[in-house]
Amino acid sequence: MAARCCQEDGRRFVWLVGQHDQEAAVTPLASGYSLHDLETGEELSKIPLPAYGVRVVELRAE
User: Is 51 helix (H, G, I), strand (E, B) or coil?
Assistant: First the structure.
């Protein structure tokens, strides 16, 4: 499951929510956008998601 939030400064964030009892890897498909780690700014092509875990990433236009 995923959700999106937009800030007043224009930044956009995506919540990835795991609904499985095992770790899963998410491969984002967002045409014209990329997902980035909040701490490092690194572009993410495959996102590990722990069992029942939540990950917040930044959504950037390319």
Answer: coil
Q: Residue 29 carries which DSSP code? A: -
- Strands, DSSP E only, in the chain? 2-6, 12-17, 24-26, 33-36, 43-44, 47-49, 54-61
Q: Are 45 and 27 in contact (CB under 8 A)?
A: yes
Which CATH topology does 2-61 take? Immunoglobulin-like (2.60.40)
**Nearest by Cα to 2 from 20, 22, 26:** 26
Taking only the tens place, the pLDDT of each residue in 22-31 is: 999 988 887 8
pLDDT (tens digit per residue) in 26-56 = 888 878 999 999 999 999 999 999 999 999 9
Cβ atoms of residues 55 and 14 within 8 Å: no
